[in-house]
Design a protein that fits this description.
By secondary structure, the protein is an alpha+beta fold. The chain has five helices and seven strands; from the N terminus they run H-E-H-H-H-E-E-E-E-E-E-H. The chain is elongated.
Length: about 180
């Protein structure tokens, strides 16, 4: 990973063509990611507590359930412990990934740039979008999902997750999509 400070504007500028103009930039909300990961964090904490309590030496008279003897006394709590660690680790990884993600809408395309373990930029052409969905919350933030539906079961789906003023961004995406449609017809 490159340095502790991530230059979002510089990363977006590196992806632009010489005459391309940025219309909007944004980043996902860290709070939104935390809230959406709360169930995983709670389940992970419960799994870790159950797993750790299985390894503690306790008098069976005080325990809620009787501790298994032998190898099952290690495997059973170990599964809970590993599942809890995996759930919490996945949620924390997703929160870190959120802080290293940026979105951009230009006059030609949409960009999703992620710089976590390695840098990855995804480009979505306006001709690749035929459905735009907006999920807005009370504070006008939300998720903008755009996808390409083809005949049959083939669907490509991308999203700007947890962005402020989601309706404004949806308007830019619709304008981009309509301008691309006019150019092809």
């Amino acid at each position: 990973m490159s340095g502790a400070i991530w230059n979002v504007e510089g990363e977006i500028q590196n992806e632009l063509h010489p005459s391309e103009i940025v219309v909007w930039t944004g980043r996902p909300s860290a709070w939104g990611t935390f809230v959406s990961n709360c169930p995983e964090l709670i389940i992970g904490a419960i799994g870790m507590i159950c797993g750790c309590s299985g390894f503690l030496p306790a008098d069976n008279a005080l325990a809620i359930f009787e501790k298994a003897d032998g190898i099952m006394g290690v495997i059973f709590p170990g599964v809970f412990l590993l599942a809890g660690v995996a759930a919490i680790g996945g949620a924390v990884f997703e929160m870190i990934a959120t802080s290293r993600t940026a979105y951009a809408a230009t006059d030609r395309r949409l960009l999703v740039i992620r710089n976590l373990i390695r840098r990855r930029a995804t480009t979505i052409a306006p001709t690749a979008i035929n459905v735009v969905e907006v999920r807005e919350k009370w504070d006008r933030s939300g998720t903008l999902t755009f996808r390409r539906e083809k005949d049959g079961d083939s669907v490509k789906k991308f999203a700007f997750i947890g962005i402020p003023n989601v309706r404004e961004v949806a308007k830019h995406v619709e304008e981009l999509r309509m301008s691309a449609r006019k150019q092809t017809s």
